[in-house]
Amino acid sequence: MRIYQRKNSTKWWVDWTDQKGHRHRKSTGTDDKKLADALAAKWTQESFLEQHFGVIPDVPFQEALLRYGQDRQRDNPVSYKAKDKYQLQRLLDRFGDLNLSDITHAVMRTWVDELLAKLKPATVLRELTTLRAILNKAHREELLAQVPAFPRIKVEPGRCRWLTIEEEKRLLVAAKPHLRALVAFAVDTGGRKSELLKLDWQNVDLDRGFATFRKTKNGEDRSVRLTDRAKRVLTDLDPQESGPVFTYHGQAMKDVKTSFERARTRAGVKDFRFHDLRHTFASRLVQQGVTLYEVMHLTGHKSFEMVQRYAHLAPDFQERAIGALNAYGTVSAQSA
Fold first, then answer.
1. 333 or 190: which carries more pLDDT confidence?
2. Do residues 114 and 90 make contact, with C-beta atoms less than 8 angstroms apart?
3. Taking the complete model, does pTM exceed 0.85, yes or no?
4. Which of 3, 95, 122, 140 gets the most CB atoms within 10 Å of its CB?
5. Contact, 279 vs 161, CB < 8 A?
6. What are the residue boundaries of the structural domains of the chain, listed by start?
């Protein structure tokens, strides 16, 4: 092992060869010779333990979080800017002083219990899911020997509120023209509010009957086939070569929370949010016999579990199940 300084630099470097003959050069980042000696000894010892006993040197949690965050920012910059970076900051504030191996089941259990005292289980589960993703990535990259068991969180089944035909009629009548077009298009495409408000005319093909949502929540593009009503909605909006599809007084809509709430109240539609228009889209598909697998792809969900909430809406769902049981019901209950 050799400790040296490069020309025009006050920082100490370490040069050593491991047991397999591989040469390593690494800067200590310090101009303190005693500290550099200590770091050099530590690195060579870790190198020996890893090669002979499979012991992985401990890594700061913040380093693993940074590597995960860089991937998220590259793969889905929109989601990263809107949500991910704030979630990562919260994790950094909580675990930033720890090494990866310090994050045990007990540590996570304490953290989860604190969050559950003030947040909904679904919100806490999202935080825990991100932490799991960071640790799993560190494990794949051999920065963490073993991923600890994660606390379980009981979450209520996903919301499944949808519009009846009568409710939809009342809502469309109560909505202002700019909102009416957006609501009808949402019901017929299943688009998320963010996807609809970002839709650009250059991603609409009325001749072929398709619209493409770019860089959706999961980072991928999703093309949807337009219904006859969705085509009429777009045609009435005066199609352009480019620019936002849904506008108000010539400007792109930023949000419709207030106008939607007012329309919902006037229409007498209770317990209904804009996102439930997406549930309406999925629910109607299932009720018409479209398979859950097809619904998953039409809505852009990444997992089958996300569309399981609609399974009970399939036509003859219970009849088919009872019919299967009846096939075995040939033995009389009295014979016992």
1. 190
2. no
3. no
4. 95
5. yes
6. 2-53, 61-140, 165-316
Q: How many other CB atoms sit within 10 Å of the CB of residue 22?
A: 10
The DSSP annotation for 254-276 comes to: ---HHHHHHHHHHHT--S--TTH
Report the alpha-carbon angle 147-150-152, nearest 5: 160
pLDDT per residue over 242-270, tens digit each?
999 999 988 999 999 999 999 999 999 99
In DSSP terms, 225 is beta-bridged to 210
Residues 191 and 315: their CA atoms lie apart, in Å, by: 24
CA 274 to CA 264: how far, in whole Å?
A: 9
Q: Which fold has domain 165-316?
A: hpI Integrase; Chain A (1.10.443)
The phi and psi torsions of 76 (rounded to 5 degrees) equal: -145, 75
- Which helix (H) or strand (E) segment holds residue 205: the answer is strand 204-205
CB atoms within 10 A of CB 28: 19
The answer, yes or no, to whether residue 330 has pLDDT greater than 60, is no
CA distance 14 to 6: 11
Averaging pLDDT over each range in 91-100, 136-145, 147-156, which range is the top one?
91-100
C-alpha 333, offset from chain centre: 51
Average pLDDT for the chain: 83
Which amino acid appears at position 204 of this protein?
V
Strands 204-205 and 23-27, by their bridges, are unpaired
Beta bridge partners of 251: 248
Lookup result for tokens 């606390």: 151
User: Which of 295, 319, 302 has its CA nearest to residue 162?
Assistant: 295
Task: Give the CA dihedral 307, 309, 314, 319, nearest 10 degrees.
Answer: 140
124, 153 Cβ separation under 8 angstroms: yes
Q: Among candidates 246, 249, 226, which has minimal Cα distance to 236?
A: 246
Tell which residue, 45, 64, 63, has the closest CA to residue 55. 45
CB 108 within 8 A of CB 151: yes
